[in-house]
Amino acid sequence: MKRFISLGMVAVIAISIFLTACTSSTSTTPSSTLKVTVASDATWRPFEYVDEQTKAIVGFDIDLFNAIAAKEAIQPQFINVSWDPLLAGMSQGTYDAAISSITITADRQKVMLFSDPYIVSGQVVTVQKSNTTINSKNDLAGKKVAVQLGTTGDIEVQKIAGATVKPYDDIGLAFQDLINGQVDAVVCDDPVAVNYVATNIDKLKTAGPVFTDEHYGIAVAKGKTELLARLNDGLEKLKADGTIDTLALKWKIKLQ
Fold this sequence. Notes:
Blueprint (H helix, E strand, L loop, with lengths): L1 H25 L7 E7 L2 E2 L3 E3 L6 E2 L1 H13 L1 E7 L2 H10 L4 E2 L7 H4 L3 E2 L4 E3 L1 E6 L15 E5 L3 H7 L5 E5 L2 H9 L5 E5 H10 L4 E4 L6 E3 L2 E2 L4 H17 L1 H9 L5
Parallel strand pairs: 1-5, 1-6, 10-11, 10-12
Antiparallel strand pairs: 2-3, 3-4, 6-15, 7-15, 8-14, 9-12, 9-13
Helix pairs in contact: 2-8, 2-9
């Protein structure tokens, strides 16, 4: 009888170990918390900007990353970095990740990884509300056009024959110069332009349609494959449970 009980217990233990192994191998729950540095150029309202009262970086991108982090056992430390050093830092592995309205491009994919896309965007022209001569990007020849240095807006305006490109480190300063009449137009991402127009409705307007097709992704340093997997898993969960739609409504962003 003792032998029978002993064998039974062995069988139960063996089955328990087998089931535990199976569960561990198929679980998507992260095994430990990842502490990561996350760079962001906090000048692109409503995606990322510095709250004047709290001095914290806030915006759609920040809320999105924090929501992913909560689901995927990630502990982010956000660092406010201007655009060119952000891209250079990502290519050199200075930061673990970056979320900053970053368009996924072939050149950038050579030096950093990208999550699945989470926003569809594109370039658009913004002018003074009284302007009647600029109605699309086709009217920018001979005009002084403000862009943020190193962005896809900068790249696109460089292609326009006859346009004079005036680069800025801060897109907010570009819009301020447009309001003051020091430049003829600003070219930047559509959601950012729409936000500036909405807050300066008596002074600014967009001119013509969005003229590029771009997708934002979260940049990840080369070799950080576990972090990339967690970010993609988190993005998928946020899309499935409606969180990303809720954040879009909060920040008045059109996802598609």
